[in-house]
Design goal:
The chain has twelve helices and five strands. By secondary structure, it is of the alpha+beta class. A five-stranded mixed beta sheet has the order 1-2-3-5-4, with helices on one face. The radius of gyration is 46 Å and the shape is rod-shaped.
Amino acid sequence: MTTTGEEHATALTGPWWWTRWRSALFDGSLALVSAVECGAEGRSFARDAGLPLVVGVVFGLLAGSVLLVRRRWPIAVVLVAIAVTPAQMGFLMGIVGLYTLAACELPRRIIGALAGMSLVGTMVVTFVQVQRDMARGDFSLGNWFVPFAAVTTSLGLTAPPLLLGLYVGARRRLMESLRERADSLERELQLLAERAEERAEWARGEERTRIAREMHDVVAHRVSLMVVHAAALQAVARKDPEKAVRNAALVGDMGRQALTELREMLGVLRSGGEERQRQDRERAAASAAPPLVAVGAAAAAAASRAVGEPGGAEGPCLAELEELVGQSAAAGMVVDLSVQGEAREYGAEIEQTAYRVVQEALTNVHKHAAGAKTYVRLAHRASEIAMQVENEPPPEQASAPPVRLPSGGNGLLGMKERVHALGGVFVSGPTDAGGFRVSAVIPATS
């Protein structure tokens, strides 16, 4: 688990400009050691400069304690170290200051200029000190030793902390970049997981809607015809026994057809449930994997459920349209079927949708306009298929009351959803003559 930017920001618990108390204690310890060093070296400086000993010690303590602010003002620390170099004090401060300066995110020209000033200052002071020692006779070597000692000493006090600081700064910036990249990847993974969950929820909603449409199409039409035939059977049972027998046979046929379609649908749902249980087991196994694998498995499972599930068993087709119209005619409806254009095969989903539109429209006529003459028109065009179901106003029922069928108000909505899902156009509404018209156009290449 990576540390996010928010968690990294809340981790700044140190005093003032320090990120942690440990860093503050470390800088305080360095400043104390530097102050003691500069205070001890201030005694020699006071004797050489002819100043009181207390002045040299206090000056050294103040100069050495500047190291306390090295993280906040590294340039100031390096400048102070350069300033006290002629007094031969502040070696620790100069080394730590150069390291801190090189590790900071400052322009390279500033770092190079201050490092050059420190190098030159140390070289000059060392050159003068070695030459003075040789003049006093402390040690006698060739003239070559003075510049050699000055160059090596200045490089030894400047180059190592500078190079180490540059390396640590580059590594720190690299780690920060990696942390930001890890935070970005974590946010992307979280977003992918949220999107996968949204797609899974959308897929579940689409599946529920599809099942509701199929159940409505199967039950509403068959049961509506059964109710109509049962009402007719009740009306003619005593007057015309032969017609009553025919109506009873039709009711039985309708019931058997409805049961057959319901069994087929339940079989599809049962097989789909077994498939979903298998996918759930796969997701449970993937949850024991690393987070990236688990998120990828969840996204893949959601995508497969969203776009990979079959729409169900093979449904009705346009070849069964005449049988559908005949069933409505047998129930007492006057239906006129006309087909224009040359019939051809379409995709299974297109034919099923066209059939369901006509079926639902005829069911609505049975429910709301019993006895009205109905016109069913089907047109095969070059790049589309069009259908229209229009009924005239229902006749006045003077003798027997009309058969009242319950309506849930979902038929037109289901037809509209089916047609729009295939990129088609659906229009429904009352006609000027008092009837009702349902029209749909579906692209033939959906």
